[in-house]
């Protein structure tokens, strides 16, 4: 085992697996282990990346959908932040947290926020706390409006905040189309 990889024996064949230090820390030489893996196929190589769980692997794969982010940079992001930490940083548009990753500058962090908004899933703590509009029977309408706004280019936090602000004033008994129109008007006033 090295600082960035380990050889994992599967069926008598040793596979070189690149992984973040936190994943490697959970492995012990000679002991059985389970890793979620992602195979990156390039013209001249096949590289296997290993993760402690499927969530980390899924985040790794989604990170690579951002232009300029390859498997090495995605792995570096998971070495610095947990999957939930990345979700929170993207949802909160926390450029400072994202630039803590070696190789990610302000422009790259902005691109991550822009291109990953809503793709990584809910940030930790989302929906926690006191009951609010998200927990009312109309949460399906709220979710539809938020998804529509994200599709129109707003980030998930702006879409959620705008939708909840309108719901707090108008109530939850409106059809989705009417609610979307009101939220769009409110978001237009804010910008």
TrEMBL record:
<dbReference type="GO" id="GO:0006310">
    <property type="term" value="P:DNA recombination"/>
</dbReference>
<dbReference type="InterPro" id="IPR011114">
    <property type="entry name" value="RuvA_C"/>
</dbReference>
<keyword id="KW-0963">Cytoplasm</keyword>
<dbReference type="GO" id="GO:0005737">
    <property type="term" value="C:cytoplasm"/>
</dbReference>
<keyword id="KW-0378">Hydrolase</keyword>
<dbReference type="InterPro" id="IPR012340">
    <property type="entry name" value="NA-bd_OB-fold"/>
</dbReference>
<keyword id="KW-0234">DNA repair</keyword>
<dbReference type="GO" id="GO:0048476">
    <property type="term" value="C:Holliday junction resolvase complex"/>
</dbReference>
<dbReference type="Pfam" id="PF07499">
    <property type="entry name" value="RuvA_C"/>
</dbReference>
<keyword id="KW-0547">Nucleotide-binding</keyword>
<dbReference type="Pfam" id="PF14520">
    <property type="entry name" value="HHH_5"/>
</dbReference>
<feature type="domain" description="Helix-hairpin-helix DNA-binding motif class 1">
    <location>
        <begin position="61"/>
        <end position="80"/>
    </location>
</feature>
<dbReference type="Pfam" id="PF01330">
    <property type="entry name" value="RuvA_N"/>
</dbReference>
<dbReference type="GO" id="GO:0009379">
    <property type="term" value="C:Holliday junction helicase complex"/>
</dbReference>
<keyword id="KW-0227">DNA damage</keyword>
<dbReference type="InterPro" id="IPR003583">
    <property type="entry name" value="Hlx-hairpin-Hlx_DNA-bd_motif"/>
</dbReference>
<dbReference type="GO" id="GO:0005524">
    <property type="term" value="F:ATP binding"/>
</dbReference>
<keyword id="KW-0347">Helicase</keyword>
<comment type="function">
    <text>The RuvA-RuvB-RuvC complex processes Holliday junction (HJ) DNA during genetic recombination and DNA repair, while the RuvA-RuvB complex plays an important role in the rescue of blocked DNA replication forks via replication fork reversal (RFR). RuvA specifically binds to HJ cruciform DNA, conferring on it an open structure. The RuvB hexamer acts as an ATP-dependent pump, pulling dsDNA into and through the RuvAB complex. HJ branch migration allows RuvC to scan DNA until it finds its consensus sequence, where it cleaves and resolves the cruciform DNA.</text>
</comment>
<protein>
    <recommendedName>
        <fullName>Holliday junction branch migration complex subunit RuvA</fullName>
    </recommendedName>
</protein>
<feature type="domain" description="Helix-hairpin-helix DNA-binding motif class 1">
    <location>
        <begin position="96"/>
        <end position="115"/>
    </location>
</feature>
<dbReference type="InterPro" id="IPR010994">
    <property type="entry name" value="RuvA_2-like"/>
</dbReference>
<keyword id="KW-0067">ATP-binding</keyword>
<keyword id="KW-0233">DNA recombination</keyword>
<comment type="similarity">
    <text>Belongs to the RuvA family.</text>
</comment>
<comment type="subunit">
    <text>Homotetramer. Forms an RuvA(8)-RuvB(12)-Holliday junction (HJ) complex. HJ DNA is sandwiched between 2 RuvA tetramers; dsDNA enters through RuvA and exits via RuvB. An RuvB hexamer assembles on each DNA strand where it exits the tetramer. Each RuvB hexamer is contacted by two RuvA subunits (via domain III) on 2 adjacent RuvB subunits; this complex drives branch migration. In the full resolvosome a probable DNA-RuvA(4)-RuvB(12)-RuvC(2) complex forms which resolves the HJ.</text>
</comment>
<dbReference type="GO" id="GO:0006281">
    <property type="term" value="P:DNA repair"/>
</dbReference>
<dbReference type="InterPro" id="IPR000085">
    <property type="entry name" value="RuvA"/>
</dbReference>
<dbReference type="GO" id="GO:0009378">
    <property type="term" value="F:four-way junction helicase activity"/>
</dbReference>
<dbReference type="InterPro" id="IPR013849">
    <property type="entry name" value="DNA_helicase_Holl-junc_RuvA_I"/>
</dbReference>
<dbReference type="InterPro" id="IPR036267">
    <property type="entry name" value="RuvA_C_sf"/>
</dbReference>
<feature type="region of interest" description="Domain III">
    <location>
        <begin position="143"/>
        <end position="191"/>
    </location>
</feature>
<dbReference type="GO" id="GO:0016787">
    <property type="term" value="F:hydrolase activity"/>
</dbReference>
<keyword id="KW-0238">DNA-binding</keyword>
<dbReference type="GO" id="GO:0000400">
    <property type="term" value="F:four-way junction DNA binding"/>
</dbReference>
